[in-house]
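#struct-pred
JK: can someone run the complex with benzoic acid? inputs below
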Amino acid sequence: MSLRLGDIAPNFKAKTSIGEINFHEYLGDSWGILFSHPADFTPVCTTELGRTAALQEAFAKRNVKVLALSVDGVESHHQWIADINETQHVTVGFPIIADEDKAVANAYDMIHPNASETFTVRSLFIIGPDKKIKLTLTYPASTGRNFVEVLRVIDSLQLTANYSVATPANWIEGEDVIVVPAITTADALVKFPKGVKVIKPYLRYTPQPNK
Ligand code: BEZ
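RT: done, structure tokens with the ligand placed:
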């Protein structure tokens, strides 16, 4: 059965481009992103890993550790990383898991047989410091992911984990947020001293509380 939001992200030991890791130990108290690729030396994947590497500081600032995965081996990963660094003008510093026996891909349901019997689709899991799955994305091989959107989602997840707010459509860091329905407007006015704008009784905005 596929993994759902709130499930514990399965732990695993795996060979990676930076050596063997125990996933949960590697994450420690950080947030995590685990994302899969159809194969090494493929063009869309090369750009995706390049974009991720270019955003390494942005992920680190948010206390997020990134791990990529494909079903190719470590030696192949090393050769591919050299290509990514050369063509995308980056230095890939995050591990790429060598999931040759597909153990991780199967645990995370990353192979969708009606798309491909052998290759992983573009799955992405965001995992909280409690090791629970906070978000999943699944893209086909032909569509590269938007890693600025992944950062935006992390900003929302980290904010809403700590405050009784939700983020509206297309929200970005710094914009007003929504007061969750569970809070009365009277309580919201106490909780959010910057003010509460009531558009409808169920649609209430407040300035981002941690800014
Ligand atoms: C790619 O990563 O470029 C790719 C992989 C499989 C099918 C299509 C594109």
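RT: quick notes.
The first helix runs from residue 23 to 27.
The chain has a mean pLDDT of 97.
JK: thanks, will look after standup
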